[in-house]
Amino acid sequence: MAVTFEGPSQGVGTITLDNPPANSYDLEFMQELADAVDAAIVSDARAVLVRSASEKFFSAGADVKRFLEGDVDANMRMIRTSQATFTRIAQAPQVFVAHIAGHALGGGLEIALGCDLRVATAGSYKLGTPEVSLGPAAGQRRTQRLTRMLGTSRALDLLLTGRTFTPEQAREWGLVAELFDDASHVDAYVARFAAGPALALRNIKRSVYEGGQLPLDEGLALEGELVEELFTSQDGNEGLTAFAEKRTPTFVGA
Question: Which terminus, N or C, of the chain has the lesser number of Cβ atoms within 10 Å?
Answer without folding.
Answer: C
